[in-house]
Amino acid sequence: MKRASRNRTLSCDQDEINYFRKKLLVANSPKSLALLKNQILCQDFFDAIQYFPQESIDLLILDPPYNLSKNYHGNHFQEKDKSNYTKWFNQVISNLRPLLKPKATIYVCSDWKTSILIAPILEQYFWIQNRITWEREKGRGAKRNWKNNTEDIWFCTLSKDYTFNIEAVKLKKKVIAPYRKADGSPKDWQAEKDGNFRLTHPSNIWTDITIPFWSMPENTDHPTQKPEKLIAKLILASSKEQEVVFDPFLGSGTTAVVAKKLNRHFIGIEINQEYCCWAMKRLQQAKADASIQGYSQGIFWERNS
Known about the structure:
GO cellular component, one term: cytoplasm
CATH superfamily: Vaccinia Virus protein VP39
Radius of gyration: 20 Å
Distance between the termini: 30 Å
Largest sheet: 8 strands, mixed
Shape: globular
Mean pLDDT: 88
CATH architecture: 3-Layer(aba) Sandwich
Pfam families: N6_N4_Mtase (PF01555)
Structural class: alpha/beta
Keywords: Methyltransferase, Transferase
Number of helices: 8
Domain DNA methylase N-4/N-6: 57-278
Number of domains: 1
Number of strands: 15
Order of helices and strands: HHEHEEEHEHEEEEEEHEHEHEE
Enzyme class: transferase
Low-confidence stretches: none
CATH class: Alpha Beta
């Protein structure tokens, strides 16, 4: 498919697919953590997960198919009735639980309808610390309902002792009406050439995220791709350098790419071979360019910066 000259959406030609697919891993026997680190496994989740070592994962980022009918470039997920979806999701979580280290953190992505189904299951296995709601910025309007343009991320931990690096995820916001001290000096803000700014503690409502689109180099044709900036917040908040970040529904590779850019180890599972190849290409590009849009010099900026 020929794209417009300014369209930066990533894809792979057939030669690239032939090259990258040779580098993909398939697990058919028990694998050590050393062998799994920084690898993408191209196979079904339930086929691969049985060969993973226990208590090896520091951070789990889980972005499973929501309970919606969706075509993932030939891999179809069919909407299930509530009981069947919760049964499926429970099987996913029960397989992942033994792989987590005692102080592990778990983030689970969902839409509002899926959140209703998965929250009770998450509560059975983990401590639910919070629920993040982020604005997708996009979304179709509806004549008989509110426009749906938010998603949830459930923040869970395996215990009450867990990593949370608040200083690593502060948001830099412009101050419209800044307060001053009695002597006229700035109070909790800093004057810069582009305006007055303040570093703020992040809340559980995120409005600074931009969904990847055609002019962004991280963009792919994956229908539910998560932004690198969003995943960077999760990784920086809840892991340390050189720890292991695992995404068992990797999609086009965002979690793996961001983990690499932030000096973490990654492991990913993805059933779709083309998505795996996109992820491999993005990882290759990350060697030369570790930038993350909206994040620079250790600071997260407001949207579209």
